[in-house]
């Protein structure tokens, strides 16, 4: 079962958490298993603090007894554990189905090590089939939509706003032949504040399929 695999991947990554660490908590259903398991360890005496990539994860962490610090006052994180929507053997990932990719990318960049946890349905030969979320300044919505369409995407405006008060454009490219080129092109659009292409951030991934966890480390793909 996918939920069993999510839990297994989360528990495997928990082995990386050490006493005294500042831990970055990702967002999503796989991270929810991590937060619950980490809460148990904290209640059992593990001395860590956390920063969270979303308001939802901060609340979930506090609810299980994890002390959550305001990331606005933090410059460096020891270890971040986060989910993904797609991940390949080179640890290129697409993230942001839950809308948290901008804060996730900031915290990943601040982290000494960033690991992804995922069930096997997220493992792909090459990223690109999933929708690529782009967080956009509401003022720039139509302009950024046009720029993404010019890059070859079918673009849909997602309902609601992010934790940062911005909107999300879900861009479907089908296949992404050159992820680095696409990431640079989106990064260059004024008003596009962040996107779900994580090409260099992920150091390792725990991917669980049918009860077995595979650890993929950067450089092994
Ligand atoms: O914005 C959401 C995040 O990038 C999630 O980490 C990602 O969508 C994976 O979520 P889940 O574990 O629920 O599939």
Automatic annotation (TrEMBL):
Q: Which InterPro entries match?
A: NagB/RpiA_transferase-like (IPR037171), Ribose5P_isomerase_typA_subgr (IPR020672), Ribose5P_isomerase_type_A (IPR004788)
Which Pfam families does this UniProt record tie to the protein?
Rib_5-P_isom_A
Gene Ontology CC terms, in alphabetical order: cytosol
Its UniProt entry gives the catalysed reaction(s) as: aldehydo-D-ribose 5-phosphate = D-ribulose 5-phosphate
Q: Which Gene3D superfamilies match?
A: 3.30.70.260, 3.40.50.1360
Q: In which pathway does it act?
A: Carbohydrate degradation; pentose phosphate pathway; D-ribose 5-phosphate from D-ribulose 5-phosphate (non-oxidative stage): step 1/1
Q: Which GO terms describe its biological process?
A: D-ribose metabolic process; pentose-phosphate shunt, non-oxidative branch
Extract the CDD domains matched here.
RPI_A
Q: Does the keyword Isomerase apply?
A: yes
* MF terms in GO: ribose-5-phosphate isomerase activity
Q: Which residues form the active site?
A: 104 (proton acceptor)
Q: Where does substrate bind?
A: 27-30, 82-85, 95-98, 122
What's this protein's family per the entry? Belongs to the ribose 5-phosphate isomerase family.
The UniProt function text for this chain reads: Catalyzes the reversible conversion of ribose-5-phosphate to ribulose 5-phosphate.
Q: How does it assemble?
A: Homodimer.
Q: What is this protein called?
A: Ribose-5-phosphate isomerase A
Could you tell me which species this protein originates from?
Sphingomonas palmae
Name of encoding gene: rpiA
């Amino acid at each position: 079962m996918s939920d069993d695999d999510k839990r297994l991947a989360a528990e495997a990554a928990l082995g990386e958490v050490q006493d005294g660490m500042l831990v970055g908590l990702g967002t999503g259903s796989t991270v929810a298993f991590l937060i619950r398991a980490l809460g148990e360890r904290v209640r059992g005496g593990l001395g860590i603090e956390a920063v969270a990539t979303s308001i939802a994860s901060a609340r979930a962490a506090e609810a299980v007894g994890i002390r959550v610090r305001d990331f606005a006052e933090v410059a460096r994180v020891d270890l971040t554990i986060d989910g993904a929507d797609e991940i390949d053997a080179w640890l290129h990932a697409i993230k942001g189905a839950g809308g948290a990719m901008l804060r996730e990318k900031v915290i990943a960049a601040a982290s000494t090590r960033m690991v992804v946890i995922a069930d096997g349905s997220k493992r792909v030969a090459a990223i690109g089939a999933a929708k690529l979320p782009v967080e956009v300044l509401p003022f720039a919505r139509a302009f950024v939509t046009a720029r993404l369409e010019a890059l070859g995407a079918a673009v849909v405006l997602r309902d609601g706003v992010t934790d940062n008060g911005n909107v999300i454009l879900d861009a479907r490219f089908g296949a992404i032949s050159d992820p680095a080129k696409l990431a640079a092109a989106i990064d260059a659009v004024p008003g596009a504040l962040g996107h779900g292409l994580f090409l260099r951030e992920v150091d390792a991934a725990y991917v669980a399929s049918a009860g077995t966890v595979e650890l993929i480390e950067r450089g092994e793909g």
